């Protein structure tokens, strides 16, 4: 059995302690006084291929918080990419500071740091980074993906992410109810942004009964008008008597305060890092009998999309076909979790690690 180390256990460790505990290969600290760039690039594991994961720009409360975030996120990318069957490792970058810092020089300087890694790390968009920013980075490095369609890229990955989440939700429904039909199921979607709105389209087509929440009232009104979904207050969603909860906004919404309020049988959504505490809250869901489709498993459509772009083999049909496989992977992982009586998150990490270990071995004898 492969040991699973969790991100919570690193809180009080030194930097090398954190890298050792979470099994990272490398952490690159980059600064440029002229542009104000402060960047961290975390490379967790490159056994399967170059470490691919987006860049997040955020005003972190402390440097320690930024380090924890880049390590946690890059590790998550390793598992996501491995389970999606990609020949890609896991990495992530964080830029510390205000989004106003973004200038052409700032982004190109960051691009040069990425280039210095010689392809060990490949970037893409994440929070506060847009396709237009990738264009500047691409002026300095070819190890960037997620470019706009008119620049030869694959464009917005959200429709593919939403399709994968839909597949994962159906697999989880199959495990929980014996049928993957979502017709008549009462589903609460938290966050009707890019992923949420495309997911809702699939759910409406299947005849689900939809309840939506967001902090953006305009988006809610638009979705409600076009789909007939019922609008909920931001907090109300946790108390809704629903079959399926789909977190598609922020991370950490599965925590001490919300899990006890939830009455759903299934949780399947697109948001990253839904479990506030990976081990504790994974166990709480198991004990409550809730079927949980791990986020990094079912929201991999986006990385499948940018991965195909990076390898220069982008074809929409095959990207959707690969994303459809999330259904089978999710069902298999939920079945393993059930047999072993372990949280689905743990079963998913085990499966990802097993693939990395197996492929790592076949790469040795050259
Ligand atoms: P987005 O910014 O388009 O949408 C997020 C939505 O959540 C917004 O409408 C926002 O107003 C809403 N929101 C914020 N706080 C909220 C709250 N407290 N309650 C309810 N709603 C709230 O982002 P997105 O691209 O749709 O991504 C959604 C989630 O999916 C994120 O966690 C992201 O990391 C994850 N994700 C996205 C992709 C992708 O391809 N876009 C891929 C993988 C994972």
Task: Walk me through what this model shows.
This protein has 366 residues and is of the alpha/beta class. The protein has helices at 15-22, 63-83, 104-116, 131-137, 158-177, 194-205, 217-227, 256-259, 278-288, 295-298, 301-310, 316-324, 326-340, 344-363; strands at 26-32, 37-45, 51-52, 55-58, 89-96, 121-122, 186-190, 209-213, 230-231, 244-247, 266-267, 291-292. Helix 2 crosses helix 14 and helix 13 (326-340) packs across helix 14 (344-363). The radius of gyration is 20 Å and the shape is globular. The mean pLDDT is 94. Residues 157-158, 161, 190-196, 213-216, 219, 234, 248-251, 270-272, 299, 302 line the site of nicotinamide-adenine-dinucleotide.
The number of helices is: 14
The whole-angstrom Rg is: 20 Å
Query: What is the first-to-last residue Cα distance?
Result: 28 Å
Number of β-strand runs: 12
Mean pLDDT: 94
Spell out the helices and strands N to C.
HEEEEHEHEHHEHEHEEHEHEHHHHH
Shape descriptor reads globular
């Amino acid at each position: 059995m492969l040991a699973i180390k969790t991100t919570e256990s690193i809180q009080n460790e030194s930097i090398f302690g954190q890298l050792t505990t979470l099994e990272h290969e490398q952490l690159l600290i980059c600064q440029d006084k002229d542009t104000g760039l402060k960047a961290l690039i975390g490379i967790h594991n490159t056994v399967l291929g170059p470490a691919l994961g987006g860049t997040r720009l955020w005003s972190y409360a402390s440097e320690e918080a930024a380090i924890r975030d880049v390590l946690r996120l890059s590790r998550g990318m390793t598992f996501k990419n491995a389970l999606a069957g990609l020949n890609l490792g896991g990495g992530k970058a964080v830029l510390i500071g205000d989004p106003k810092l973004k200038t052409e020089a700032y982004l190109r300087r960051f691009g040069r740091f990425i280039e210095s890694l010689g392809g060990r790390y490949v970037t893409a968009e994440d929070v506060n980074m847009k396709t237009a920013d990738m264009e500047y980075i691409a002026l300095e490095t070819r190890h960037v993906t997620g470019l706009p369609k008119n620049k030869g890229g694959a464009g917005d990955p959200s429709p593919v992410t939403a399709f994968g989440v839909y597949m994962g939700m159906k697999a989880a429904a199959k495990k929980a109810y014996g049928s993957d039909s979502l017709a008549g199921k009462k589903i609460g979607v938290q966050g009707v942004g890019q992923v949420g709105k495309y997911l809702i389209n699939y759910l409406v087509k299947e005849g689900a009964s939809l309840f939506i929440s967001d902090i953006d009232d305009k988006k809610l009104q638009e979705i409600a008008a076009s789909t007939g979904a019922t609008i909920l207050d931001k907090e109300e969603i946790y108390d809704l008597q629903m079959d399926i909860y789909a977190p598609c906004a922020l991370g950490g919404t599965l925590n001490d305060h919300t899990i006890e309020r939830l009455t759903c049988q299934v949780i399947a959504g697109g948001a990253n890092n839904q479990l506030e505490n990976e081990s504790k809250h994974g166990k709480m869901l198991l004990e409550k009998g809730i079927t949980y489709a791990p986020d990094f498993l079912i929201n991999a459509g986006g990385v499948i999309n940018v991965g195909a772009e990076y390898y220069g083999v982008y074809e929409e049909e095959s990207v959707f076909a690969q994303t459809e496989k999330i259904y089978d992977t999710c069902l298999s992982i939920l079945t393993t979790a059930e047999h072993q009586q372990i949280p689905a998150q743990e079963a998913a990490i085990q499966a990802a690690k097993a693939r990395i270990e197996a492929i790592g071995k076949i790469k040795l004898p050259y």
